[in-house]
Write a structure and sequence with these properties.
Layout (H helix, E strand, L loop, with lengths): L1 H6 L6 H8 L11 H13 L4 H17 L3 H17 L5 H16 L4 H15 L13 H11 L6 H22 L11 H17 L15 H4 L2 H14 L6 H14 L7 H13 L5 H14 L5 H17 L9 H21 L14 H20 L3 H14 L15 H20 L7 H4 L2 H9 L6 H15 L29 H22 L6 H17 L3 H19 L7 H22 L2 H17 L5 H4 L21 H9 L5 H5 L18 H5 L2 E2 L16 E2 L2 H31 L2 H26 L9 E5 L2 E4 L16
Antiparallel strand pairs: 1-2, 3-4
């Protein structure tokens, strides 16, 4: 019977006859469209025949492939594509299985044209939205085969490009087909991502262009759109754009692995470009997940070369710049903790010369590479800080300050001869990080933004002998105080005849600013004064001190603060005149110039004509007789210095009595102006190496009088000698002994005394307490007076009587 059916065409099933009729005698003629329409109509009318149609087409295609009749292969695939586009019934699943079987057959072929043909058919299928789910369909083969095509090494470059582009399109089709269907294979599994992502990165890297590229490419020409690089980038962006919260890790991990395997961190350019694509493509609320993975990868490469770590840090820098504000994630301090840990490790590596501290059998570390890494980490810390709101930035500032080793406080330092140098390097690096974090810092309440736990340790570093540390502290203070971008206007120390050209932005000092200066003003002035006493100060130090003084009087000064700043400027002049200080001629001239420039600035801000006249007269005399006492004469590359400053004429000095007199007429506190400024000695002086043991023993303690806070009367200084210290120790020891004896007697009494005696003692105390409370209640709790009056009941008692309101007598002021 089957043989008869095979010989007689009329006895063959109708679907086979319809399928055979779409193939012409000559494959060059292409698909017979009229017969194809009949086949399509039949498939729509009898959907249960779709699986048989697909199976028969698959059989014919396999036979044609084996016989190398590639024209009929193309016709069969075209027919399959049209049937797929036309039929959306429940039986489509069985037909799809036959279709995928034919696509797999083409992809397994070694002919590039057949591979491209199969890929194009699969892409068309991927764009079809199926009405019925599929529970058993697998795309593992297609992921593997398309990934292999992406790495094609075909000899002909044009054909190789076509094969790679076909592979990229195939991967894009697999992603589109599976990413939104929960019943399909999970394309985000590591086994699939480890094939898809490296294939895309390989093509992105192989066609990388030398010119810089925009994160979001503009509309390009048709030829450029067809390039593998553009196609790969679009596919990569689409893949990342579809990634949900739980899939970000699986999508980014292969990228990190690819960078490691191909040593792409050292070049930085490609790694930065890839992560720019990632950061711009994923949803903005998921940005912190990428940053956390990069931080974890940085920790994992802690003992890798400095170039690798620097490349990861550069990528972090770019990622932080792209991330939206506040997207660093919930673990903000953990981000900075990781970066600071890498900074400290880099310093340790630079000092020890190896990654394990033994320098035996390990890679020799290049110091300049570690320095480049440290600078990159510092820039990254600043980039992260710029994405944070003010309150979080304040927390980061406190966090970094807590990491800085303070001499005399951090006593648990390892016994190593490199400790001083290592501690100093850590201080410098962390202070540089603080400079980056505080850059652009804006706050309305200085008290809450700069608590004592931050400001006190920061100012203590201004007493350290190292000039770079002191300069960094001053730069941090400038960033914190400058809230109106006035800092660039004080960049150079100079005498300005009219400060209106500076266009300073001056606002009225707020209540919070007044409280801040009342609490910390003297502290700041003291550290400015002591900073001018440092012999290692350079021109940059004096310029920064001038900017700090200028910002104080512009940003935070009220009338009382202005008086203190004038006293400070005059004290700096006295400091330059004092012969007891070990200052060089250059330092003395620089302090004179700093004082003159600042008094010239502050006199114009106070707008008191007599004050301005005195300052300008002294400046004119200096310009004629002593130009080295002005900024224009000392802050030069090769300044002309006098042989000595022991004899300075009074005409070139600013007179405190004259200034107090002219400002007193304008309502300023003359008593305070006439009092010379003397910085108080505190415990922070132990951080400065200027103090010797003898000076510490002869420390003079000054106690301000509390009876009159407005007057600056001081009690005579009490000299602390050996005898006073000995008597204080003996007295304190005697008091402690008496206290211990009293406690022993109380415990013994309660242990050995009878119960009645203890009860009587406690009862007497309770009675005494109750009587005192009754007295207090009688004094404080009294009934309010009644307008209706009282009635006497005799025996000294009285009772309120009720009087109608119309009979009450009210004061005249209450009646109208």
């Amino acid at each position: 019977m089957y043989g008869v059916c095979g010989c007689c065409g009329a006895l063959r099933p109708r679907y086979k006859r319809l399928v055979d009729n779409i193939f012409p005698e000559d494959p060059e003629d292409g698909l017979v469209k009229a017969n194809m329409e009949k086949l399509t109509f039949y498939a729509l009318s009898a959907p249960e025949k779709l699986d048989r149609i697909g199976a028969y087409l698959s059989e014919r295609l396999s036979r044609d492939v084996a016989r190398h009749r590639y024209g009929y292969v193309c016709i069969a695939m075209e027919a399959l594509d049209q049937l797929l586009m036309a039929c959306h019934c429940q039986s489509i699943n069985l037909f799809v299985e036959s279709f995928l079987k034919m696509v797999r057959k083409l992809l397994e072929s070694d002919k590039p044209n057949l591979q491209i043909l199969g890929t194009n058919s699969f892409v068309k299928f991927a764009n079809i939205e199926e009405d019925t789910p599929s529970y058993h369909r697998s795309y593992d083969f297609f992921v593997s085969r398309f990934s292999e095509m992406c790495h094609s090494n075909y000899e002909d470059p044009d054909i190789r490009t076509k094969i790679r582009m076909a592979g990229i399109k195939g991967l894009q089709g697999v992603v589109r087909k599976t990413v939104n269907d929960e019943l399909q294979a999970n394309i985000w599994d590591p086994q699939h991502m480890d094939k898809i992502v490296p294939s895309l990165l390989f093509n992105l890297q192989s066609g990388e262009r030398t010119e810089s590229r925009s994160p979001s490419p503009l509309q390009a020409s048709e030829k450029e759109k067809e390039s593998p690089v553009e196609l790969t980038e679009r596919c990569f962006r689409e893949l990342l754009g579809r990634a949900a919260y739980g899939n970000i890790k699986n999508a980014v991990s292969p990228v990190l692995m690819h960078m490691d395997n191909h040593s792409l961190w050292e070049g930085k350019i490609f790694a930065v470009r890839c992560f720019k694509i990632i950061m711009y493509s994923i949803q903005s609320q998921h940005s912190h997940l990428v940053i956390q993975q990069l931080l974890g990868h940085l920790d994992a490469n802690s003992k890798n070369s400095a170039k690798v770590r620097a490349g990861i840090v550069e990528v972090l820098l770019e990622a932080a710049a792209i991330a939206a504000s506040g997207s660093v994630g919930p673990t903000v301090l953990e981000v900075f903790n990781t970066l600071l840990r890498q900074l400290r490790l880099s310093v340790d590596y630079e000092l020890t010369g190896s990654y394990d501290g033994t320098n035996i059998g390990t890679q020799i570390i290049k110091a300049h590479e570690e320095r480049q890494l440290q600078e990159a980490v510092i820039r990254t810390i600043g980039s992260f800080a710029n994405t944070l709101p003010t309150y979080q930035r304040s927390e980061v500032m406190l966090f970094i300050m807590g990491k800085i080793p303070v001499p005399g406080v951090n006593l648990t330092l390892p016994p190593n001869e490199l400790v001083p140098q290592g501690t100093q390097m850590i201080q410098i690096m962390l202070l540089k990080s603080l400079v980056q974090v505080t850059m652009g810092f804006q706050t309305t309440n200085m008290l809450t933004a700069l608590p004592d736990t931050f400001l006190d340790p920061l100012l203590s570093f201004s007493l350290i002998n190292h000039p770079e540390v002191r300069l960094l502290v001053l730069q941090i203070l400038l960033s914190l105080i400058d809230r109106h971008d006035n800092r660039p206007k004080f960049a150079t120390v100079c005498i300005i005849s009219d400060i209106s050209v500076l266009k300073l932005k001056v606002d009225k000092c707020s209540r919070q600013d007044n409280l801040f200066m009342k609490k910390h003003g003297q502290h700041l002035c003291r550290h400015i004064y002591l900073g001018c006493k440092e012999q290692s100060s350079s021109q940059q130090h004096y310029e920064t001190l001038y900017a700090l003084l200028g910002l104080l009087c512009v940003e935070l000064a009220n009338e009382e603060v202005v008086v203190d700043l004038i006293r400070l400027a005059l004290a700096l002049q006295d400091l330059a005149l004092c012969t007891d200080e070990d200052l060089t001629i250059y330092n003395r001239c620089a302090v004179h110039a700093l004082s003159a420039a600042y008094l010239n600035l502050i006199c114009q801000l106070t707008t008191v004509p007599a004050f301005c006249q005195h300052i300008h007269e002294v400046i004119e005399v200096r310009q004629k007789e002593s130009p080295y006492l002005l900024p224009e004469g000392i802050f030069l590359e090769c300044p002309t210095l006098p042989p000595s400053l022991e004899r300075v004429e009074s005409g070139v000095l600013f007179l405190q009595s004259k200034i107090a007199e002219v400002l007193g007429g304008s309502g300023y506190n003359t008593d305070r102006l006439a009092t010379p400024y003397v910085p108080q000695c505190t415990d922070e002086d132990r951080l400065s190496k200027r103090k010797s043991i003898g000076e510490t023993i002869s420390l003079q303690v000054e106690v301000e009088s509390r009876n009159s806070p407005e007057k600056e009367e001081r009690t005579p200084a009490e000299e602390i000698t050996f005898e006073t210290l000995k008597s204080a120790i003996v007295d304190s020891a005697g008091m402690e002994e008496q206290e211990r004896e009293r406690r022993r007697q109380v415990v013994e009494k309660f242990q050995k005394a009878p119960f009645e005696e203890i009860a009587a003692h406690c009862g007497a105390r309770a009675t005494m307490l109750q009587s005192k409370l009754n007295q207090i209640f009688e004094i404080t709790i009294r009934p309010p007076p009644s307008p209706s009056g009282t009635i006497s009941l005799g025996y000294g008692q009285s009772q309120s009587r009720s009087v109608p309101i119309y009979e009450m007598k009210f004061p005249d002021l209450c009646v109208y």
